Structures are given as C-alpha cells and as structure tokens.
Task: structure prediction
Amino acid sequence: MCACARPRVIIAYRFTKGEELRYLLTTKGEGTMSIAGLPGQKSGTTAPVKLEVELAYTTRVRGIDARGNADIEYSFQRFASTTQSGTLKIQTEADERGARVIQGGTVIKDAPGLDGLRALFKNPTVIQMDTRGNALSITPPKDVGELLPHTNIYTLLKQTYITFPQGPVPLGHSWNEKRDITLGGGMEERLPATKALKLDTRYTLAGVVNHEGRRCAEITLRGETAAKELELNPPQGAAVPMSVMLDHLRQSVKGNIYFDLQRGQMRGMHVDTAQDMAMTMKVAKGETETKFGTTTKIKMETDLKLLE
Result:
C-alpha cells in the first residue's frame, strides 16, 4: 500500500529521428602499483599511478523501427588518454586528423592498435537501443580490429547507459543490473569466456529534481564485485610461455545519474570507483621459472555531461 501511494514517474528514452546530442565523458584516477619478485629485485617497489581519459562524441538518431527501437550513430570527435606509472608516461590521442601515441616527447603514428582507433573516428558506430536503454546490438565500423589495450572506447560507452524498469517507477524504488566489469589494460579480453566478471549494481530512484534547469530523475547507484584465484589467458604474442593468476579483485562503485524525464535524455552522470587488484605472473624460460606479482590500488572519478 505504501508503494502504491508514492509518486510514480516513467523513465524512458524518447527518440526523434535526426536528433543530435553532444556529450563529454571524462575519467580521472590516482593510485599505486607495487611490484615484487622481479629478478635482481631485493625488495618490492611501489610507484604512483595516474590516468586521465577524455572522450567527446555525438549521438544521432538515424532511424526508429515499428517497435520504437532506435538506431543511434555514435560519432567520435576527440579521444585522449594519459597513463603514468612512476616516470613512464604514455599519451594516446585520436581525432579527425588521425591517431597517435606520444611517449617521452616522441610521436608514434604506427603503433599496434592505432589503425583500429583511426577506423572508429573515420565512420560512426551504430548502436540499436530500446526505450528502456537496452543496447540490442552494436555495429562498429569496418576494419576496427584490435585496439590499444588502454583505449577500449566501447567499455567507456557501456558506462553511460543503464536499463530502466518497465512502466511507472515509484520514488524510492530500486532495481539491479549486472554489467561487465572494467579492469583496464586490456584485461577484459584475457578473461576466460566462462569466467566473465560482473559488477552487480543497484539503482534507486532517489527523487525528481531540478538539474541544470530540467526536471530530472535523480538515480543513485551502488555496486561491487569480488573475485580471487582466477587464471587469465596469457597476453597475445607473448615471447615466452607465461601464466597469469588474478589473486584477488575487489571493486566498488557509487554515484548519481540525472535523466531528463520530459526529453528522455541522459543529462549527466558521476561515478566514483575504487579498485584493488593483485596478480601473479610466472614466466618459464627453459627449466627456469620466474615468478613476480603486482598489486594495483586506484580510485577513479567518471563524469558524463550533455553539452548544449
């Protein structure tokens, strides 16, 4: 009876053919990476880690089918990422002029994965989505191929849309969704197919608020996942036999989403992520085996903003 008495709103995307929206997605993170067990290393070392990612893109509703599902073009205008561990700093940039990696002042235009990044900016990606926010299909441009490990744009995009409940939603109502976890560094591709990690996220309609002059649903989110003793596939093209064990992983997220109820548009999102991950690598060379481990602890902030 209490649930029936609460105000209800419908949270759903509204698609208009030809409509274009511009978004800016940013991620910033800081933490530490520790390495122990390397040959000649008497004690472990710990170095600060920093990362920054910025993605500017435009969505355009290309068409709407009889069921109300929309084909949405995602056109990327600019991508920039910076990762820094100790003194090692690597920048990746992509725009309509092409793609490049910058390391120590040296610009590299033919690094592995850059061709795939260029393809993403040459032609739009098409995502078919229903009004609840379910991504029914993703059609990338041809010749995307393998991307650089730290430039998984599709993983970034998946964080920007969630699945809403069907029909009117009462204030205070919660629902759950399991999502592929973001490990970074190309780790997702190295997980065994039967061991995909999921982040169990709980969303709650906290209220209806005025956000930047628009009547918006404020949705809070919290999620966490944990895993241990999970064997990963070795890196592709490894020069020597290697085994990789994910000793433990703990990740939690919390944040807020603002969804324009009248226009049916995502207006903004802020998500805080904390991750603690430890791995052990074993490298075999002849009859000799080298074993070393890494531990990464990082906190990140991700923001999505609709630009007008």
Remarks:
- DSSP finds three helices and 16 strands in the chain.
- The first strand starts at residue 8 and ends at 9.
